[in-house]
Design goal:
heterodimer, A: 136 residues, mainly beta, Immunoglobulin-like, five-stranded antiparallel β-sheet, five-stranded mixed β-sheet, 11 strands, elongated, B: 168 residues, alpha+beta, 2 domains, four-stranded antiparallel β-sheet, three-stranded antiparallel β-sheet, extended
């Protein structure tokens, strides 16, 4: 059965946070591979996070720092001996810094078959405003 | 040739298992060094310069294999793939996974600034440590992870041929 792409809400954090985002779990982390591309008026980021669905992905935006986290269920190994391993199973974690060129309020995230797609729309340049001078 | 081949205390082990949680940190260090050696001297044909870091050539899925008394479980990371693009076949002692990882079709043209993910057709043949019952293999694909469960062939089912001894 083919999965449909599912949307994820991007959370904005306000208030006091540490300068570098810290993780609160001592679990092994893996850096997901990403592709960053530009398509028309948006930047699009694809991240490979097999094992993650919309319930276990966490995207947070905090003053320009975008944190991508994907939580993965550990391999069920009862009764099994791991005979051969080419990849480590672990939570996905990657941090990006966004510039003002991105409109941070309109970021969209969705996930399908373990691939996260982030659409980062580019900000419209600030329009020049005319300021009216009032007489006192 | 891996360091395993020239270090006699490694003989008899089938490969280096991935890290388990709660493991002693010194033991983790020992295994990390082991893996470092294996990576460096390991896959010479594919990575002649010693590392798979930064390799963005054709896509080749990574697999893990776990073994219990009754079956062998092989898991492969295939993010973004459609299960109709994956083909699995088995023989008595190998498992072949082949398919093609395609990019997500978008209408607009895209300019890539930074590409780490790879795409393309792949084919991996994995040797299994023992014979399996090819009739009852189970495969499922969820969230980009393919899991194939192959029941082991019990000794009673495996063919044992009795060889008569001739006397002159």
């Amino acid at each position: 059965m083919t999965e449909k792409r599912k949307d994820i809400k991007v959370r904005k954090k306000e208030g006091l946070t540490t300068a570098m985002p810290e993780r609160t779990r001592a679990k092994r982390t893996v850096t997901p591979r990403v592709d960053i591309c530009e398509s028309g008026s948006d930047m699009v980021v694809f991240a490979d996070m097999p094992g993650v669905n919309e319930g276990s992905a966490n995207i947070t935006l905090d003053r320009g720092i975008l944190t991508i986290e994907g939580f993965v269920e550990p391999d069920k190994l009862e009764g099994y001996d791991l005979a051969y391993a080419e990849y480590d199973v672990g939570d996905y974690y990657r941090v990006f810094t966004l510039s003002d060129a991105i409109d941070q309020d309109r970021i969209e995230a969705s996930i399908k078959d373990g691939v996260l797609k982030l659409v980062l729309p580019k900000a419209e340049p600030a329009k020049a405003r005319r300021i009216i001078v009032k007489a006192q | 040739m891996a360091i395993r081949d020239i270090a006699p205390w490694k003989w008899g082990r089938k490969g280096i298992p991935a890290r388990r949680e709660g493991e002693h940190p010194i033991y983790s260090l020992y295994r990390a060094m082991d893996q470092l050696f294996d990576q460096f001297f390991g896959d010479f044909e594919r990575f002649p310069f010693g590392t798979s870091e930064g390799w963005t050539g054709p896509f080749s899925p990574q697999v893990n294999m776990a073994e219990s008394d009754k079956d062998i479980r092989v898991t492969a990371e295939l993010p973004g793939m459609d299960e109709k693009d994956i083909e699995i076949s088995t023989s008595k002692d190998t498992l072949t996974i082949k398919g093609e990882k395609k990019e997500e079709r978008e209408e607009e043209e895209k300019d890539y600034y930074y590409a780490e993910r790879s795409f393309g057709a792949f084919r991996r043949v994995i040797s299994l440590p023992c014979e399996v019952d090819t009739e009852n293999v189970d495969a499922s694909f969820k969230r980009g992870v393919l899991t194939v469960t192959l029941p082991k062939m019990t000794p009673a089912e495996a063919e044992a041929k009795k060889i008569p001894i001739k006397t002159d």
